[in-house]
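2024-03-11 09:14:02 INFO worker-7 job=invfold-0412 stage=load source=structure_tokens
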């Protein structure tokens, strides 16, 4: 198995057991709770007194040969349904479809909502083909809202989605003025940036989506297959970015702002499918009520325990958000800070009034030549003399984003982040710069920024910047990273790179060092480097290379 194949899980929801979730739903319908734990049985008994969940077929949008039916479940209040608020929940990128939400939908119903969950087109028992939050999916969302209102009624309506369903929920709110609030978990704002970060192809992300769709038996439309294939084969970039823009909530943010729709986001620091910065750009662009919860982990993993009914602060906030904005419950969330951050690795929760307030100050560290007798360059607070170093780009190094999409995030959540052997990094294949040991703990909060000049030996080039926290024994944990690609440089001519690394909330203990590693290959990305290419990384007195570190 290649390193790229190792990064691809078969499912985006490895912790969810279909049988367990289906037993919950069957007991909810039949009342037979004999195979459930007492606490779960009591919850179902209480729910059955208030709501009558039923499997439904939701008429979807008319596309091509005709309309499709969407497989769903409707939780309708037994009394006074028309005077209740409603929630629509489009499913994630999984064959489990609406079943992913069965526990949380029941809890919303217990709180007095009419709830409709549905499986998005092309997945599971729903008709149609997967359009990746295209126009048919957005029209499906409005049709689902039509159905909820016709069958149960709704005074106000919220949309809630995880992953794929979160993007559809934002896009629906931009198009349908009946939607009063949104919860978007593990979401995207700019799909183009998720596929091409700094012009670098996210091949592992696209391979993961394809593999999960295949495992789910999803039916991808011809255009979806073509775009995914183009990303993997490095073709038709402009057409792909146009396709992605049509599916990006950021494209339509002014429509959301016009009505000041309240939006709640949840995201993981080490998100490998939809990088954090592009979601933060969407968050920053919103002018209405907003909130973002940033957590240790990877795609959908921080909210996973809530999907099976265990205590989960992200889902608790989602309930508070919708209760406040759909039911006028004065629970305090409207007066709380906009940003909640879970800090790596102590799991402390911090809040700030805005994203701009997350970073208190910035410290500039200059990349300098290796001191006498040292292999690594230095990161220091003053620029040094001019220097240059040459790296080969064809070989991978131990400096990688993660061992695997999603599963590495679960290990991080469990307190076991990947340990990197920095001593094994070849200086022929990577540039390495290290700070002196921290006299006191450093609290990194925000987006690190890298400025450097390099000269590629070829017209196209890629490097990946990794920022590590290195202990005294040389072992390291990754703080953040970002790729950079230049596609139109002249061979032998300098390229200036200004790179935003992915946002972070990280505490570096006293005695540890920062380490910046630049190499040309990572299994998560499709690099543009031709065989045997080199990058000459340099710094001059007129234009020194530096790393800006955001601190609290």
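2024-03-11 09:14:09 INFO worker-7 stage=emit residues=552
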């Amino acid at each position: 198995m290649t390193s790229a194949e190792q990064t691809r899980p078969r499912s985006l929801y490895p912790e969810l057991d279909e049988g367990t979730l289906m037993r919950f739903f069957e007991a909810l319908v039949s009342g037979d709770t004999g195979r459930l734990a007492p606490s779960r049985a009591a919850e179902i008994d209480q729910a059955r007194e208030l709501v009558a969940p039923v499997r439904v077929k939701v008429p979807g949008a008319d596309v091509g040969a005709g309309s499709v039916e969407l497989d769903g479940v409707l939780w309708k209040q037994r009394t006074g349904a028309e005077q209740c608020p409603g929630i629509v929940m489009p499913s994630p990128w999984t064959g489990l479809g609406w079943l992913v939400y069965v526990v949380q939908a029941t809890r919303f119903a217990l709180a007095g909502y009419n709830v409709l969950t549905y499986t998005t087109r092309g997945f599971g028992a729903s008709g149609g083909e997967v359009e990746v939050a295209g126009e048919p999916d957005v029209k499906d969302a409005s049709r689902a809202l039509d159905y909820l209102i016709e069958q149960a009624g709704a005074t106000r309506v919220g949309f809630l989605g995880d992953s794929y369903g979160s993007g559809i929920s934002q896009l629906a709110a931009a198009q349908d003025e009946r939607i009063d609030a949104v919860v978007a978990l593990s979401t995207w704002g700019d799909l183009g940036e998720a596929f091409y970060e700094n012009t670098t192809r996210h091949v592992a992300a696209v391979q993961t989506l394809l593999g999960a769709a295949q495992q789910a038996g999803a039916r991808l439309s011809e255009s979806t297959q073509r775009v995914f294939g183009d990303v993997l084969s490095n073709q038709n970039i402009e057409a792909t970015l146009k396709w992605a823009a049509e599916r990006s909530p950021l494209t339509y943010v002014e429509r959301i702002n016009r009505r000041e729709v309240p939006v709640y986001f949840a995201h993981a620091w080490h998100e490998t499918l939809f990088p954090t910065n592009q979601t933060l750009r969407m968050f920053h662009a919103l002018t209405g009520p907003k909130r973002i919860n940033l957590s240790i982990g990877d795609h959908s993993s921080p909210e996973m325990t809530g999907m099976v009914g265990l205590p989960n602060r992200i889902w608790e906030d989602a309930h508070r958000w919708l209760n406040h904005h759909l039911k006028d419950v004065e629970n305090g969330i409207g007066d709380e800070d906009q940003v909640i951050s879970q800090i790596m690795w102590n799991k402390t929760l911090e809040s700030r009034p805005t994203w701009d307030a997350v970073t208190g100050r910035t410290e500039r560290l200059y990349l300098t030549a290796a001191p006498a007798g040292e292999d690594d360059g230095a990161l220091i607070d003053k620029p040094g003399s001019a220097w240059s170093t040459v790296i080969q780009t064809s070989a991978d190094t131990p400096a990688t984003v993660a061992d695997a999409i999603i599963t590495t995030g679960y290990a991080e959540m469990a307190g076991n982040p990947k340990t990197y052997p920095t001593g094994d990094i070849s200086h022929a294949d990577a540039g390495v710069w290290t700070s002196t040991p921290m006299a006191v703990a450093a609290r990194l909060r925000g987006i690190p920024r890298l400025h450097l000049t390099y000269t590629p030996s070829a017209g196209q080039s890629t490097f990946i910047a990794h920022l590590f926290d290195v202990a005294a024994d040389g072992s390291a944990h990754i703080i953040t990273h970002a790729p950079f690609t230049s596609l139109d440089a002249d061979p032998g001519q300098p390229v200036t790179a200004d790179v935003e690394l992915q946002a972070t909330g990280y505490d570096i203990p006293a005695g540890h060092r920062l380490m910046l590693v630049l190499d040309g290959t990572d299994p998560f990305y499709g690099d543009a480097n031709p065989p045997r290419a080199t990058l000459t990384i340099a710094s001059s007195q007129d234009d020194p290379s530096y790393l800006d570190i955001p601190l609290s």
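2024-03-11 09:14:09 INFO worker-7 stage=report msg="The chain is about 25% helix and 30% strand."
2024-03-11 09:14:10 INFO worker-7 job finished
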